[in-house]
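Can anyone check this?
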Amino acid sequence: MKREKQKELLRLLEEDSRLTNEQIGMLLGVSTAEVEEEIQALVADKVIVKFPALINWERFEDDQLVTAMIDVKVTPKREVGFDEVAKRISRFPEVQAVYLMSGANYDLSVMIEGKTMREVANFVSQRLATFDSVISTATHFILKRYKHDGIQLDERDEDQRMVVTP
C-alpha cells in the first residue's frame, strides 16, 4: 500500500477504530485483504500500538481516580541522557505517560493516576523523589477535563430556549 493510503488508513483508524476492514477498504478504494495485511504490518512495526475507546469516566463513575501531572527535573546520565530515568519511571503501574520536554524548567513530564491525592503524594515522595538523578518535582492535579485526544468531553447541550427580545 502506498504511503498516502497508509496515512489515510491510520487517520481512519485513529478517528474510529470500530470501522470494519470492509468499510475501510471501500473508503480507501482497496480490497479488504489489502486492508487486513496493511493493519497487520502496521501492528507488527508498532506503528499501531493500541485500538482504544475514549471513555468519559466523569459521566459514568462517582468514584474518580485522581490524575496528576508531575514536572521532574533530572540530572542526565552519561551516554543514556534522560532515557534511563524515563524508562524506570514508566515501569510504575500508576504512571500513564512519560514525556521528555523542551523549553521548560523541567526535563520530564509524568502523568499518573491514583485513588486519592495522598496516594499520588506518596508516589512522588517515596518513589519518584528517591531516584538519584531526580533533582526536583512539581505536582499539578487535574481538576477537570474539557478535551482529551481531540474530543470535547464537557459539551453542554445547546440551550433550546427561544430568544425573546423587546
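Reply from J.R.: I decoded it. The two ends are 63 Å apart (CA to CA).
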